[in-house]
């Protein structure tokens, strides 16, 4: 299995001078719709087996805008859903880049796709192939309990401890793995990343409303592009983490997490 690209992007918040050296409360989050249950269970089991002292969260979300997310999950399907795991339900976030089921003019279609790459533009006409936005809920996950969360895709393989992601300095607002394609405009892969959390009101004002107004751009018409644009427009300029300890923990070879692809 290919290893996850090195942890390479760290973004500092502009207004965190006070308490900059403190370590935030943190949890690892994985999950998805019901089809990802087995992968999510594997991630939770590995984190427990590795003895991570940080919280673990299973996030469940619907496959569409009318499904009850909990209906496709059974606790009996999990071997590592113990009493130390928080189980949360994420609401469906509509994707404004999907116009396949809406009657829009050519001008409106051009506005919708203005900041979307060519390949994603073609997919945008096919409802079932367009990227989803529900992962954006990560920014508000258990804000009252955790000030930082680390998302791990359920198809990632946790090879060794990844606690370093939770233990980044308090001034780091966001850190992610570099996209393996190394293409211009695609600096991150949202399969593994750490982020500060925010309350519901802040999430609505800084994420949901800009997304609905298409002010939160996405080069791939999905969550990865939206996450990166949010980081670019809300935090200080990205800083390369370099080949130090953090990169070694997730880097090529015997890294901390590998992609099951």
Structure overview:
The model is unreliable at 1-6, 14-21, 125-129 and 241-255 (pLDDT under 50). The protein is 23% helix and 20% strand. With 261 residues, it is an alpha/beta fold. The protein is globular. It starts with 6 loop residues before the first strand and ends with a strand. Strands 4-3-2-5-8-7-1-9 form an eight-stranded mixed sheet, with helices on both faces. Strand 2, helix 1 (37-49) and strand 3 form a beta-alpha-beta unit. The protein has helices spanning 37-49, 106-112, 118-123, 163-166, 200-212, 223-234, 245-250, and strands spanning 7-12, 26-32, 55-60, 85-89, 148-152, 156-158, 172-178, 188-196, 239-240, 257-259.
Strands of the largest sheet, in order across it? Answer: 4-3-2-5-8-7-1-9
Helical fraction equals 10-25%
Distance between the termini: 7 Å
- Secondary structure tally: strands: 10
Individual helix count: 7
Tell me the layout of helices and strands.
Blueprint: E1 7-12, E2 26-32, H1 37-49, E3 55-60, E4 85-89, H2 106-112, H3 118-123, E5 148-152, E6 156-158, H4 163-166, E7 172-178, E8 188-196, H5 200-212, H6 223-234, E9 239-240, H7 245-250, E10 257-259
Parallel strand pairs: 2-3, 2-5, 3-4
Antiparallel strand pairs: 1-7, 1-9, 5-8, 6-10, 7-8
Pick out its properties.
261 residues, alpha/beta, two-stranded antiparallel sheet, 7 helices, 10 strands
Gist?
The chain contains seven helices and ten strands. It has 261 residues and is an alpha/beta fold.
């Amino acid at each position: 299995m290919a290893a996850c690209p090195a942890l390479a992007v760290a973004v500092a918040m502009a207004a965190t001078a006070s308490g900059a050296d403190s370590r935030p409360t943190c949890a690892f989050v994985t999950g998805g719709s019901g089809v990802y249950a087995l992968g999510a269970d594997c991630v939770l089991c590995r984190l427990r087996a590795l003895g991570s002292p940080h919280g673990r969260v299973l996030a469940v979300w619907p496959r569409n805008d009318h499904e009850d997310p909990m209906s496709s999950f059974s606790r009996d399907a999990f071997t590592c859903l113990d009493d130390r795991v928080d189980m949360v339900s994420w609401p469906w976030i509509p994707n404004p880049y999907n116009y396949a089921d809406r009657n829009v003019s050519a001008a409106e279609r051009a506005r919708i796709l203005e900041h979307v790459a060519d390949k994603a533009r073609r997919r945008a006409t096919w409802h079932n192939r367009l990227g989803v936005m529900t992962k954006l809920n990560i920014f508000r996950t258990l804000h009252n309990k955790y000030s930082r969360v680390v998302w791990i895709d359920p198809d990632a393989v946790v090879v060794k401890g990844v606690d370093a992601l939770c233990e980044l300095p308090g001034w780091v607002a966001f850190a992610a793995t570099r996209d393996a394609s190394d293409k211009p405009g695609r600096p991150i892969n949202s399969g593994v990343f750490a982020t500060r959390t925010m309350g519901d009101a802040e999430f609505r004002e800084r994420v949901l409303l800009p997304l609905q107004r298409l002010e939160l751009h996405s080069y791939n018409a999905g969550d990865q592009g939206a996450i990166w644009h949010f980081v670019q427009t809300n935090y200080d300029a990205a800083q390369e983490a370099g080949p130090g300890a953090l990169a070694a923990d997730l880097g090529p070879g015997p890294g901390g997490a590998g992609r099951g692809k």
